[in-house]
């Protein structure tokens, strides 16, 4: 049960939006998702309250340093992916969550300012990996990207991060009204009324491409059917 978290010391970078888009898209694809709302501002919990029951998604609120690991252990048997939304801070809960994560996504806005926030998190990751001997993969996801953000600015951020050996996702998250609207209306892009919100189809397409790329970065799960396929393959070769 991979644990995916979203972190950036800079507030407002787009963590919660990126976390919710991934959760709702994977749930739509049939995966059982638990979102752990580890931000005291409770954005995800408020989204859940506005949404009511959403198929394949459960939200855990009121998480503490002491309770986080227990939640993961307890829910692991009934969960395909854990998604942790973290506060824009650099505190003990963030550190604990990073330590329990398989992959950390760092949303960075397509502007030079946010490269600073990303650099802070990268420093933190480096310290954790070295001092606490923690190991997890991490990738930057560019977000709130508009046609106004110049290719030059994006290339500058990509260059800065590549120099630190960081994977930058190929699919950026665009600046879209539909993504903002999720928090107003609750529900998912799939329950959103296209007559009321512009470009829902394009938003869905973006969310799907982003989720596909995230899944490609996840550790391969050896399921029973995959094992029998492998055994079958071995027999064919023999
Ligand atoms: N791709 C996007 N398109 C449109 N609006 C966005 C997008 N991403 C984020 N926003 C908006 O930007 C604001 C901040 O985004 P979000 O809450 O996701 O950031 P955050 O990193 O979780 O912030 P915090 O540090 O406060 O937790 C919100 O108003 C959100 O609706
Ligand atoms: Mg947030």
UniProtKB/TrEMBL annotation:
CDD domains linked: ParAB_family
Top-rank taxon, per record: Bacteria
PANTHER family cross-referenced by the UniProt entry: COBQ_COBB_MIND_PARA NUCLEOTIDE BINDING DOMAIN-CONTAINING PROTEIN (PTHR13696:SF96), P-LOOP CONTAINING NUCLEOSIDE TRIPHOSPHATE HYDROLASE (PTHR13696)
Name this protein carries in UniProt: ParA family protein
